[in-house]
Design a protein that fits this description.
Length: about 525
């Protein structure tokens, strides 16, 4: 079956839902494809026990429609996975885009037909759709990493991934011996839930992470009233902020202007106010970051009874923020329970998974269940999962063989009218992803409207603009403590053989937004206009 539309949108998460709505608003015909059976994206797949967002719900939401802001009530200041997925369903239904989406269908290939100036999209249900504009709203963290551990397939018990938890949630862990591999944000959330029911929990930790308290709890009614009064003013304020949101707390004093007693006072206030990352106005300075890191390490140690376990749960190899920090009010205390045990892999590495459990260099640990919280092939992984071919049949895999290259985090030279929201070199995970989804989709459809108005059917970025953007990304990364020295998925270091390149723009949301819209105002000088 072959059909033709103006726009194809792949993915039905935050960006995909809004992209479908924007297409309709602008009078464009549109089809959406989603590999899951419902909307939600990240919040559909990561349905593991304990999954919740650690960006506050009042920030992590759409603001394009006043009625959505006024009608939706968050039950918690940091909502859980099921509630966020319900919210996305509510928005998709309100915006009447569910009818445009074909669920349970993967987009497998997309190739650019130069003669016709159209993308030809092939799906897993055998359908082929041609479109003028292709929006891959496929997320940055949607391609789970295959664990690089010998014997994974040999395990005779049950195995689960946090990144694709069974939708029916019928995972019986009660009374079972459970091993959890991975202690990133997902591991830190799932481990305390597993410990509530399992008879034994063995946590296999390769790298310790910073863990600070969550900002959950009931929503402040005054905050909610303020948001609802003028949602568009809030939306604008987010776009003019550094992180795409307005934090609830922020230090007002500078590390460099305080003596040691003053610094400790400010750190304590920030800890109690739950804004430790922003304790100082100059928190971005390496010396201020070092003080924040040490303060968190001390608070973490205090929560763990056993000195060996405390020592090993505290991160020493990277500064706070070098890799994605975690939030939990219960994770560290979980290790005070007698049936929960930490295994420090740098000292006793995993040798292999066996049919009975996991064998480390020190012992054989018999298990009934293994939970892999081992992360994702971030940012480029989901793009490579689709066989994308641009001008002259050149593939995205070839084009990005040495690492992702693009302009303004959305478009790639040689791939006209292909848009990649939340991709490499956008503020992505170092900003509020909900604000970013709206901003990027607005920019994409403003670009499409401009092309139609100016009779220019296609555009793609100039090669030199991409080089400039990569240098900009690197320039700002150099100013971020630990960004270039920490092994993290931000730079592809979690995937053996993946080219190392810091993939997140940290020049701030305001600067990013202004740079995008300067292009539009000046007629796209960083792009080649075609046709
Ligand atoms: P992650 O941060 O990449 O963590 C993966 C964990 O698995 C790390 O501890 C890693 O160790 C470990 N690991 C990977 N391969 C391993 C192996 N072969 N042997 C032993 N350990 C191994 O993945 P994630 O926790 O799923 O989180 C990914 C991102 O999703 C987060 O950074 C965040 O942006 C987002 N997220 C957000 C939330 C939230 O809002 N609360 C929740 C979940 C996820 P190393 O560190 O040594 O590589």
């Amino acid at each position: 079956m072959t059909s033709q539309v103006d726009v194809v949108v792949v993915g039905a998460g935050f960006a995909g839902i809004y992209a479908l709505w924007q297409a309709r608003q602008r009078g464009l015909s549109v089809r959406g494809f989603e590999r899951g059976s419902d909307v939600g994206g990240t919040w559909y797949w990561n349905a593991y026990p304990g999954a919740r967002c650690d960006v506050e719900s009042y920030n992590y939401a759409y603001f394009f429609d006043n009625d959505i802001v006024r009608q939706w009530n968050w039950s918690d200041a940091c909502a859980g996975q099921a509630e966020i997925q319900r919210y996305l369903r509510f928005v998709a239904e309100r915006c009447e885009v569910v009818k445009d989406i074909t669920f349970n269908t993967r987009v497998q290939a997309a190739s650019f037909d130069e003669a016709k100036g159209m993308w030809v999209v092939e799906t897993s249900n055998g359908e082929t759709v041609s479109c003028r504009y292709l929006v891959l709203a496929i997320g940055a963290l949607s391609d789970p990493k295959t664990p690089d551990i010998e014997g994974v397939a040999d395990f005779a018990g049950e195995a689960y991934f946090t990144s694709s938890w069974p939708r029916d949630r019928k995972v019986g862990l009660r009374g079972k011996r459970v091993g959890v591999i991975g202690t990133g944000s997902s591991g830190v959330q799932v481990i305390p839930e597993v410990a509530k029911v399992a008879s034994e929990v063995h946590v296999f930790q390769r790298t310790a992470n910073y863990v600070t308290p969550t900002r959950g709890g009931p929503m402040d009614p005054r905050l909610v009233a303020g948001l609802r009064e003028d949602p568009q003013a809030v939306r604008q304020a987010f776009r003019e902020s550094y992180g795409g949101h307005v934090p609830l707390g922020m230090g007002t004093e500078r590390y460099t202007e305080l003596d040691e007693a003053g610094r400790q006072r400010v750190l304590q206030e920030a800890w109690e106010g739950n804004y430790i990352a922003l304790a100082f106005r100059d928190a971005y300075l390496p010396e201020a970051n070092a003080a924040i890191s040490e303060f968190i390490r001390q608070r973490m140690r205090e929560q763990v009874n056993d000195p060996w376990t405390a020592d090993h749960l505290v991160p020493w190899d990277h500064p706070y923020g070098g890799k994605r920090p975690c939030q939990s009010d219960v994770y560290l205390q979980t290790f005070n329970q007698p049936h929960v045990r930490l295994i420090a892999l740098p000292e006793t590495p995993i040798e292999r998974v066996t049919p009975e459990g996991i064998k480390t260099s020190a012992a054989m640990i018999p298990l009934d269940v293994i939970i892999y919280a081992t992360g994702f092939d971030a940012i480029s992984g989901p793009v490579f999962a689709i066989d994308i071919k641009g001008i002259k049949g050149r593939s995205m895999r070839e084009t990005w063989a040495d690492g992702p290259l693009n302009y303004l985090g959305t478009m790639v030279h040689g791939f006209p009218n292909l848009f990649l929201p939340s991709s490499a070199m956008s503020p992505s995970v170092l900003s509020n992803m909900a604000t970013l989804a709206e901003q990027q989709v607005d920019f994409i459809f403003d670009t499409i409207e401009w092309l139609d108005e100016h009779g220019r059917p296609q555009l793609h970025p100039r090669a030199d603009a991409q080089v400039f953007w990569r240098e900009e990304t690197l320039r700002y990364a150099q100013r971020r403590p630990g960004a270039l020295t920490t092994k993290s998925w931000y730079s592809g270091a979690n995937i053996p053989g993946k080219p190392r390149m810091f993939m997140v723009y940290c020049g701030g949301f305001k600067r990013y937004n202004e740079t995008c819209y300067r292009e539009l105002a000046e007629g796209f000088p960083g792009y080649e206009l075609m046709g």
